[in-house]
Fold:
Amino acid sequence: MSELKSGFVSLIGRPNVGKSTLMNYIIGQKIAITSKKPQTTRNKIQTVYTKEGKGQIVFLDTPGIHKANNKLGEYMVNVAEHTMKDSDVVVWLVEPTDYIGAGEKHIAEQLGRCKLPVILVINKVDTVKKEEILLFIDTYRKLMEFDEIVPVSAKSGENVEELLDTIFKYLPYGPMFYDEDTITDQPEKQIVAEMIREKALHALDDEIPHGIAVVIDRMKMRKGKKIMDIEATIICERESHKGIIIGKQGAMLKKIGSNARFEIEKMLECHANLKLWVKVRKDWRDNDVLMKNYGYDKKRIDE
Structure:
């Protein structure tokens, strides 16, 4: 029998509880994008954590489970629910609170039907007093039975090692799925598109970001030089949004571009020549064909 343990772990939770931040902390570099705005993660993102002598955890970072208002929302919830079915362990991230809202109750109901080990992670413990944490643990314990409850801070890394050890405890013995230097199954193009989307989310007003997608039109290394030429289009739903994304004399688009370029160059370890365009595609989040074009394909959910 293999000495190593390997398995798939679904990271679930409501939008904005810190799933992507936790993922990025564990992997040690940016794969999942983070933003204070909800519904940042739209597709299932696989990241791989390997520990010598212990094994491998393949994390499936899912879109937040929420009440869907359009086809894109339905797609995201579908992805999250399918991902849970493919896992060995479910890690549920929650806020440190003694109030349990409808969103949390909805997730607890779904988890009640799943036969997998469930580890509750109370995130953001760096934002509360130590003595309050026991109260929060008690509140969630009344909601449903968990296999383990681990308080962490994804931002500072507090208790993250303990969480990883706890996850390994519940994984099956078996060989690793990926070689040890793999950290994600995401194509480079997709990560670049996500980085641009993240910078747009950070820079823009609240009403716009849900309605944007980013498409990489061209990505090619310049012959004989360490320069990556990237052309990308930011898709939005309204003409008025297009004006805001471009900004006065192109200032906003420039800001998004230079912030994204900084991250992209760090990841690719070369210079990036990034050109951005903005196009309007009215109500694309309710259009199956456009959603598929922008990387949200229903058929991929079952993969």
